[in-house]
User: Which sequence fits this backbone?
C-alpha cells in the first residue's frame, strides 16, 4: 500500500533536508581541507548513521522497522548512491561551493533525458526546450575553451546531477513499500563495507577537530537523508525537487563566509537558465501527475 500523499508536508521536509545537506557539503569540504581523504570521510558518513539507527531501534525494540523483502533493490540503490556520493562531495572539492551546487541543479534535465532513453517515455516540446535551456546555462557557466571552470570539476558536478536523477527514481520506488528509516539503514549496510576496503589506503590519524567534523558529517547526513527520503515518500519527485534550488543560497553564503569565494559572473548568467529549466520540467511533471490522478483513482488496477 502506497503512503498517503502530503504535498505541503513533503515540501517542508525537502526544504529542511536541503539546509542540512548544504551544511553537510560545507562540512565535508572543510574536513577534506584538514587532510582527511574523501573515501574515509564517506566511510564515517555512512557508518555513523548505520550505528545510530541500530542504537535507536534497539533502544525502542522496533527491529521490525528494518525488515525488508527488497534487499536486491536496496543493494542497487546503495551502489548507485555510493557512486553519487563521490560525485556530489567530490565536486565541491574541485569547484567553488556555489558552482558545484549549481551543477547539481541539472538533475531534472537529466531526468527528462533518462526517461526518454531508458523508459521510452515521450517528452513534449516544452520539456525538450527546457533541456536545451538547461544545457545553455551549463555552457555559459563552463565557458568551453576558457579556464574559468576546471573541466574535471565541471564533469564531476554534472555527474552528480545525473546520479541524483537516477537515485531519486530508485528512492521514490522504494518509498512505496519501505519507510525512510529502513531505506537509509540498508544504504549504510551495503555501502559501508565497500568504503571500508579503501581505508588501508586512505585512513590516517586524526585530531580532535577532525573527529568532530567527521561525527558532525555523519549526524547531518543521517538526519538530512531521513528527511530527504521522507519527502520522496510523501510527495512527487518533480514537485519536491523545486526546493533544492534554495541550496544555492546556502552554498553562496558558506562559500563567502568560509572561503571568501565570490562566484564568477558566468554563474549569475547561467544559473538562472538552469533553475528555470528545472522549474519548468518540475511544473510539467506536476501537471502530468494531476492529469493521471483521476484515471488512476477510477482504474481497477
Assistant:
Amino acid at each position: 500500500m502506497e503512503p498517503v500523499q502530503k504535498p505541503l508536508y513533503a515540501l517542508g521536509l525537502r526544504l529542511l533536508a536541503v539546509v542540512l545537506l548544504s551544511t553537510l557539503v560545507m562540512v565535508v569540504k572543510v574536513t577534506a581541507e584538514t587532510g582527511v581523504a574523501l573515501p574515509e570521510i564517506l566511510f564515517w558518513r555512512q557508518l555513523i548513521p548505520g550505528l545510530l539507527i541500530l542504537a535507536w531501534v534497539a533502544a525502542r525494540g522496533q527491529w521490525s522497522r528494518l525488515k525488508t523483502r527488497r534487499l536486491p533493490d536496496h543493494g542497487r540503490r546503495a551502489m548507485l548512491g555510493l557512486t553519487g556520493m563521490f560525485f556530489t562531495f567530490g565536486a565541491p572539492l574541485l569547484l567553488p561551493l556555489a558552482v558545484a551546487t549549481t551543477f547539481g541543479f541539472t538533475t531534472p534535465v537529466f531526468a527528462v533525458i533518462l526517461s526518454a532513453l531508458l523508459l521510452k517515455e515521450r517528452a513534449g516540446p516544452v520539456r525538450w526546450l527546457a533541456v536545451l535551456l538547461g544545457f545553455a546555462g551549463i555552457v555559459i557557466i563552463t565557458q568551453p575553451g576558457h579556464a574559468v571552470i576546471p573541466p574535471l570539476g565541471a564533469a564531476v558536478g554534472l555527474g552528480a546531477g545525473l546520479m541524483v536523477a537516477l537515485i531519486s527514481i530508485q528512492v521514490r520506488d522504494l518509498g512505496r513499500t519501505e519507510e525512510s528509516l529502513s531505506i537509509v539503514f540498508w544504504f549504510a549496510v551495503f555501502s559501508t563495507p565497500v568504503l571500508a576496503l579503501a581505508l588501508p589506503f586512505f585512513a590516517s590519524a586524526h585530531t580532535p577537530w577532525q573527529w568532530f567534523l567527521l561525527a558532525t558529517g555523519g549526524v547531518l547526513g543521517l538526519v538530512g537523508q531521513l528527511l530527504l527520503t521522507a519527502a520522496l515518500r510523501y510527495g512527487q519527485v518533480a514537485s519536491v525537487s523545486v526546493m533544492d534550488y534554495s541550496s544555492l543560497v546556502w552554498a553562496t553564503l558558506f562559500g563567502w563566509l568560509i572561503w571568501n569565494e565570490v562566484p564568477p559572473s558566468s554563474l549569475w548568467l547561467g544559473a538562472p537558465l538552469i533553475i528555470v529549466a528545472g522549474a519548468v520540467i518540475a511544473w510539467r511533471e506536476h501537471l502530468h501527475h494531476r492529469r493521471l490522478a483521476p484515471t488512476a483513482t477510477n482504474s481497477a488496477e
Observations:
- DSSP finds 13 helices and no strands in the chain.
- Residues 15 and 243 are 6 Å apart (CA to CA).
